Batch of 2 targets.
Target 1
Amino acid sequence: MRPFQGLSVQITSQSGPLKLHHDPDDDLSNEPCTRQRYIEAVTGATFKVKVSIHKAFELSSLGLDDAVHITIYYDGQKRGWYTDLTRATIVHQWSQGKPAEHTFSHISNFCQGTQQWKQGATTFGALEMKETVDSQTSLSDVQNLGRIQVRVARVRRILRSTPIRAMKGTQKPITEVTEKVLKGKAIANTVRVTDEVPGTEPPPTLYEHIPIHGEHGQALIFNIFYRSRNTLQMLGCIPRTPSPEPETAMPTSPAQLALLEGAGNVKVEGSGSGSGSWAKAKRELEDTENAGSRKRSRNSGAIETIDLTGD
């Protein structure tokens, strides 16, 4: 069975789709229904998460009103709500030659101060390091920092007698931690909300979701870890930036050429200081440096004193 066949997740920012880098330590044999990928997070960049269901995705086990249930978690918090793509909706999209898709781009929060719902875009905010923090942040609170998780499950839906409304309690993101709590994890960002505007209450949950029986009933999990470029290089997800080649210092003036001539490293022909003699001397210096194993001759004559004062 190929559980992820026909299913894709893409994260985009202002610059376009972010490349999903493979996890060098991801062992597919351990958890065949879980995928781990890394992306590069740039502080301050807004982003969206798009889930697409293509024709290769298995649907035969679903009834007409059954659905593909998609939930998203930011840093371990279910702040992005969920969506149901029914079998009928998916088949209709396929008949139009398009995949069935849903994009998570905003988070809704209830503001206790104004007693109103607000909605803002998701962004990679900076995670501040402090010696002490006001809130009691535990190890369990930070174990999911730096991770966006998408869960996709084929479910049967049963209509609830009483719909469940969205909770008005605000799930606050973790914005500051101590190095002790973080335990050496190279995490520099956290998911925050930006550009908040007045919004509406998320739709109520009308259905109870029950996983279907059999091998297709297991949830498919995408764990996408967002890290800085430097951290991705240290993890081996992307190549390290090559070090620049050392540059050989070249003489920049006739006076320096005169010193080199006295040392026997270059020979300046002619008494003038024009561009022709300067270029020829420079070429001779380069030829000398590229000579490889050839030995440079030492000037066995008397030491020449050169007056650089111009008097």
Target 2
Amino acid sequence: MAKAIWTSLFIISYMFTVAHGLPATDSSPLDFSINALLAEFQSDNATTTTHNTSALSSGDGISRCDGSTYRSNLQISSCQNAVLQIPQTQSSVRFKWRSPGGSPSDLPLPQRFISKDGLCIVEVVLKDKALYGRAKWSEIAKAAVDMYFGCVVPKGEGSMAMDIGKPRISPFFVFPPFTPPPSPVSALIAHLAGPTPLIQTGEDKTLGLIMTSYTPRVTCLSVRDAPPIANCQGILDRINSSPIPRLFGIPGKAKPDVPLPKLMQEAQKQCQFIVRTSDAQAFDDWSSWYEIWEAAQALVGMCIRYGKTGFALR
């Protein structure tokens, strides 16, 4: 049985070609400054002697500090760096759980922003049963700054913020009248099928953020031949993120669900992820695609973003 499965990055070419994905922070349109936002919040908080850190209200959502759920002892400098990874633009973006039929303009969930040292993450989430969520990057950034100053700075606690964005229902959609189900069986079927999707436009208040600590197992290597981050992000956006455990292994040595080595690359073939066992004597190991995505995301956020290659242990 393998000790670990690791995600390692190998480079074929590094000529820049843009692939779909989150824009790198240093190349996104600078419609507003998160640094200025941090300074503004810091100035406001400097004159405040007390904080209501159990529930912090802002114009962009409600933040709740919860060290037991979202961990405690978060590092101030790490979380500030994670917040700074959020794109600094006023443009609106729609998030949706990744699926084969998703729109190319949607950003597939999970999506995460990780600090340079990997110790703090900000992850975008959706409310229960929400199909998608839309908000401006500036609204997401303001909510993250609120969480940072409301929970991390005074108490070192992780937190969740919900109701990010403003609701705007399409005027062309008419809500159907409620009709009670005729029998308990049809009521059960309706319950299992879930709610009927609403046609919504604009910001819809279904988005949330989680700020918490993280323990990376990433090693950055060469500062040469690092691929464009946008190409690697394009791979991250397409990786299966199912939490269901799968047996990863070498055919002939095991009977795996996922044969190893597993190559993942984008169309330009300038960024590659190779998943394989970390020990020559190890032939298989159990993992989930979500754990593979998580390791690859940490590798991109901690190494590729700063011009390095590397590998990450799952």
